């Protein structure tokens, strides 16, 4: 792709779509050319807010818009398969919000479709694109803490959320695991790869979604990861990785950190902080920049957020759900494959 502005389409108009659009507006080589919602008035209000020239009252029109280089899918995750699939079928490149889909089967369908259509596809796992998280991974890969033996990560919200809230609604893929637990699982797998074993337990709501879930992931290397998510208690939202020669502690907001501390045996602690030039810790600009870099390079997936890694995380989430007994409407007994 030539060095012109990358033209974005935004599919959905909720809070995460607005946050992403606000960051795109600040990038000189990005342009939002269209937005779509199932409600035209929502699309028009979004377009007016962000100066978007075209607003569609249906997804199909956005998918068919040949002026759009890439579509950011920001629907609730229960609709990711349908929305991203529609765009890929129409020849659009796609950045799809996390969790990538409801289950592995849907994720595999999207990956296969992207490869069949020769289109770019990436999960919007912004944590993987964060410069400080990338620095942490590089340190671990370079042996800064020795051989990894344990990882911990948690993400919990205090709530309480009423039964009608999307986080409690099975029809919307509700529960703590897919909405919040995807971060601790993704953090562990960023450092250790796909686990060889999964054990899990949960407390379920009357509607049948998980209110809180704890899982222990294990690897043949002997490494373990403990991950926890909750929508009934606000946790520290911290992470750590411990190895044979030290550990790294990541404070609150581990998935978009502003600092972390490396403790190496026999040395003083070293603090690594975010570069102010990288923008606020809540910025989604880094995943947008990675998409635009890949498109300009003619790549069909990102090295930072590879599709096989996304599928591996979905396999783990499926395995956890199978063990805690959470199944969503329309999923048959074979949907959770691991």
Are there runs of 5+ residues with pLDDT below 50, and where?
none
Strand content: 15-25%
Tell me the number of strands.
14
Distance between the termini: 39 Å
Q: What's the average pLDDT?
A: 96
**How does the major sheet shape up?**
8 strands, mixed
Helical segment tally? 10
Helix percentage: 25-40%
In spatial order, strands of the major sheet run 8-9-10-7-11-12-13-14
Following the backbone from N to C, one meets helices and strands in this order, namely EHEHEHEHEHEHHEHEEEEEEEHH
Shape verdict: globular
Evaluate the radius of gyration. 20 Å
Would you tell me the structural class of the helices and strands? alpha/beta
What does this structure look like?
The mean pLDDT is 96. A hairpin with a 5-residue loop joins strand 8 (197-204) and strand 9 (210-218). The longest helix has 18 residues, at 307-324. Helix 4 packs parallel to helix 5 (104-117), helix 5 (104-117) runs antiparallel to helix 10 (307-324) and helix 8 (176-192) crosses helix 10. This protein is of the alpha/beta class and 338 residues long. The two termini are 39 Å apart. The strands form 2 sheets. An 8-stranded mixed β-sheet has the order 8-9-10-7-11-12-13-14, with helices on one face. The chain has helices spanning 15-25, 40-50, 59-64, 80-89, 104-117, 126-129, 131-141, 176-192, 285-296, 307-324; strands spanning 6-11, 30-36, 54-56, 70-73, 93-97, 121-124, 148-156, 197-204, 210-218, 224-230, 239-243, 246-250, 259-264, 270-273.
Describe what is shown at a glance.
The chain is an alpha/beta fold. It has helices at residues 15-25, 40-50, 59-64, 80-89, 104-117, 126-129, 131-141, 176-192, 285-296, 307-324; strands at residues 6-11, 30-36, 54-56, 70-73, 93-97, 121-124, 148-156, 197-204, 210-218, 224-230, 239-243, 246-250, 259-264, 270-273.
